[in-house]
Amino acid sequence: MDNRIDLQQLVCFVALIKHQNVSKAAITLGLSQPTVSLALKKLREVFKDPLLVRSNGRMTPTSRALALELEIQEILYKVDALNKSESSFDPKTSEAKFSIMCPEFVEYYLAPRIAARLELDAPNIQVQFKTSNPSEAFDMLDKGILDFRLGWWPKPNLMLRTKILFRDELVCLSKKNTHAAPKLSLSEFLNTRHVRLEAPRNGVSTMVIDQAVFKIGEKINIALEVQTVFNLAKTVSETGFLACTGRKIAQEIKNKFPIEIRPIPLNIPEVRIALYWHERTHRQTSHIWLKNIIETEMKAISQ
Questions:
Q1: What's this model's pTM, rounded to 2 decimal places?
Q2: Alpha carbons 30 and 141: distance in angstroms, whole number
Q3: How far are the Cα atoms of 42, 49, 61, 72, 199 from residue 45, in angstroms, in the given order?
Q4: Best label site of 84, 267, 271, 288, fewest CB within 10 Å?
Q5: How many angstroms from the chain centroid is the CA of residue 84?
Q6: Coil, strand or helix: which one is 131?
């Protein structure tokens, strides 16, 4: 028996694991259903395992198939990297396009700095910032739709590289009031109505506050959700609402709106912002160029 398999068969394997359906895998790959079925037959012969078995109208991966999936993806990523060699990358002549997902406050500080770098060194390169959406970010990185994510994953996928670039403290914003106590009581924090950024923009920082409140059997009174941090700040400055955000952006807001920065009366962990990128792009010259810029500028921002 011929034990050789080709790249198309490996691509079929990954699609079959993902869709668990021959027809759907074939449509996704732009191949005929018989072609995908033949690829599965060949893979079963080579690996001496059924790989996918029918169960409840779907094709469920076997334990052997799940064990092979990561290794086969790694092979395909390396082949893809070879096909996209960038040894001649030059930012001054490149027309590359990049996408970065990050929280709004990170974009506020980082975007002007990257724009300045583009003006100086990369006249034809384009960078797009995307709204923070942790639930979709890995899939976008995995598919190459997204190049970098700035944010926080407690347990990032094994296919991601990561580096912590920024740490901050969560604080509470309230309307400027000369008669207000410097510190909020827990009762005041819980019972006063809050304004918050809409999901998924609010991210992990909001989640840790909710978790801390949940631990004491309470719930924050969220009365309003808005789309931007400056809408949030304007709302706080003109009402009795409270809001929670990082100290660094809070200082920026305080320079523009009549607000107070007060400690959150709960045991809240620090905000950590890490840079994530896919193993597939780790050695691509263009990604290294932009990653170095992001690291340098985020270090300057955090000082």
A1: 0.68
A2: 22
A3: 5, 7, 16, 16, 47
A4: 267
A5: 24
A6: strand
